[in-house]
User: What shape does this take?
Amino acid sequence: MSIRLNCKYLRDFISDAELEAMRDETAAAQSLLYENKDKAAGSDYHGWLTLPADYDKEEFARIRAAAKKIISDSKALVVIGIGGSYLGARAAIEFVTSKNYNLTAVDTPQIFFVGNSISPTELSEVLSICEKTDFSVNVISKSGTTTEPAVAFRMFKALAEKKYGKEEAAGRIYVTTDKRKGTLKALADKEGYAQFVVPDDVGGRYSVLTAVGLLPIACAGVDIDALMAGAAASMEAFCDRDLKKNDCAKYAAIRNLLYRKGKKVEMMVCYEPDYTLMNEWYKQLFGESEGKDNKGLFPASVIYSTDLHSMGQYVQEGERILFETVVTFDAPKCDLPIEADAENADGLNFLAGRSMDYVNRKAREATVLAHTDGGVPNVLIECGKMDAYNLGELIYFLEKACAVSGYLLGVNPFDQPGVESYKKNMFALLGKPGYEALADTLKKRLEN
Ligand code: PA5
Assistant: This one.
C-alpha cells in the first residue's frame, strides 16, 4: 500500500484528544457501509465498496476486446457522457498518461469528451474532426435519459451513419448504460450496439471502476488490470473500523473535525498538472455526496505552483474558512536536470545540479509551511508513482473517504436530489411535454 496520510502539519489545528474523540463516531460511520447497512441511507448504492474484487470478469474481458477493436479501427474515440459518466475516465487517462494525451497518443486513438456541456462550439469542433478521420463512439449514461449526452449522441450517430452506413456505424458505437431501463438502452437494443453495464448498485460518481471508466481508459492504452489491482489493495488496506489503523477513515474524521471547527472549504492541492482532472473528479464526488441539507464542505481545487500565482494570496491571507488536502507523489513521471550556465545571467546557478522535481518539492514544503503559518490546516495524502496501480489505490481511498465523510456528516452520500431542480426548469423552458404549468411560471419570472 503506497498511500499514507501525513498529519504532522495539523498539530496546531487538531489535538490528539479531539481525534481520539472521533473514534467511535468514525467506526459507526464505517459500520453503515458494512455490518449496519440496513440502517444506512443509500445502502442500495454500496456496490462500489466491493467492486475491485467482485467486478464482472466476463464484461471486463469484453471491455478489453472492444478497446482492442477501437484501437485497431479508429483514430479518434468520442466519449459522450457527463458528471460521473465522464469525469473519472478523463481523469484517469490524464493522470496516467498526460493532460496532453491527444497530442502524445501514437498507438492509441485520440479521445474527445463531449456531451459534458451544451456548447455548440465544442460539439462542432469534434464533429468536424470526426468527418475527416475514422472514429468510434462510446456513449455513457446510467439513466440513459440525460439531455446533454443524448443531444450529442444524436449528432455523432447521424455522422457515423452518414459516413459509414447504418451497419458499419452500428459496429462503431458502444453503449454503456443501465442493464434494463432507459431510452439509451432501448435504442441500443433496437440498433444492435455493443453494450456495457453500469451496475444498479453503483452511482454515477462512484462508477469509474465499472465499464463507465474502464472502456475509455483501456482505449488510451492504460493497464486496467493494474488499476483494479490497486483498488483491490486499497479495499483490503482501509477496512479497519479503528481510525488509528485506517488512514482513510482518519482522513474522513479530520475533514469532519475541521468542518465542525468552522472550515467551510476543502481545497484539494496537487503539484502535478496531470492531476487537474482528478481534482474535477474529486469535486464531483465530494460535492454531490456531501452538499445537501444545507451542510457540507465546499470542494475546491488548485494546481500549484500555477495557482499560487492566482489563488495563493487568498489562501494565505483571505477568510480563514479553508483547509488544504495536498496529494503528493513519490516521484514525477519524468525529471529534468538543471544545468550550470557559464554566464549565469539569470542568477540561477545556485540550482545547478538540482532537478525540476527538487524545485517542485521545495515549493511544496515552502507553501505548506507558509499556509499553515497563515492559519490554513494542511493534511497530506502521500502516494507512490503516478501509474495505473497507484491511481486505483487513490480512487478507492477517496471514494471510501467520501462515503464515510457523508455518514459522519449525517447525509446520504449516494443521492443527488438537488441536481433535478435545474433539469425541471430547463425542460419547462425548452417546451418538453408535461412541463407546461412550470413553463408559464418560469417565463413570468424571467420577464419581470
Ligand atoms: O453522480 C451522478 O449520479 C451524476 O453526476 C451523473 O453521473 C450525471 O448526472 C450523469 O448521469 P447519467 O449517467 O445518468 O447520464
In short: The first strand starts at residue 4 and ends at 6.
